[in-house]
């Protein structure tokens, strides 16, 4: 499943699942513009992958950052074929305790960043018959407690993705969603803070474990980004060990 000669933007691509995607994409022949808030992690990815990546330190909820990422893909690598809207941030607490700022964070980094990057990327994606991979979550599909703003953002992203998959099908641009379950550093921190919820979640996974970002999740995103998935659009793929079965 090659990504030879493809150019991707990966938001949140300096750590967690996004970093795994960045590294796998480069391994499969792509060049990647990584957008992330973490300067040090971004520098480390560039140090390893050298000319195959460009790093932009920026906040994905800022439309100007989306425009800069697309411009960088064009200037450095000659265009843009794949957009991976992976970045996301949120706070975990009961619905009645979630503040305006919590909602702003979840919707800003989730829904609005996804919208901004899709809008910024559209001309290039149309030119190259590109692919968009957005991110949902089992927390949204299942209604996990304490995740109201995050769940709302993630389910809004799935609705947006289905609509745009239909609208952009005429341009041969595919838009799909991945809902992963992976033990990243972020999930490990969440597990430490919420041991009961973590134990419950892990016990529900038929394959018996939280996934590995590099070997269990990134290949699913690479598949959706590749020409092997050329007849798949508007779908949500659960990369979650069988925890949730969508119909
Ligand atoms: N890990 C899981 O089990 C799981 C489960 C369901 C959904 N997801 C989704 O998968 C995606 C990746 O998850 P993860 O666990 O790797 O997350 P993570 O928190 O480990 O990493 C997120 C990355 O995004 C970056 N980021 C956060 N806010 C940003 C901002 N405003 N601007 C730019 N960069 C920003 C972070 O610096 C980090 O590099 C997210 O969309 C998440 O909601 C993950």
Automatic annotation (TrEMBL):
Pfam families listed in its UniProt record: adh_short_C2 (PF13561)
Domain Ketoreductase: 6-176
CDD domains tied to this protein: SDR_c
The entry's keywords: NAD, Oxidoreductase
Similarity comment: family membership: Belongs to the short-chain dehydrogenases/reductases (SDR) family.
Name of the protein this chain belongs to: SDR family oxidoreductase
Organism encoding this protein: Streptomyces poriferorum
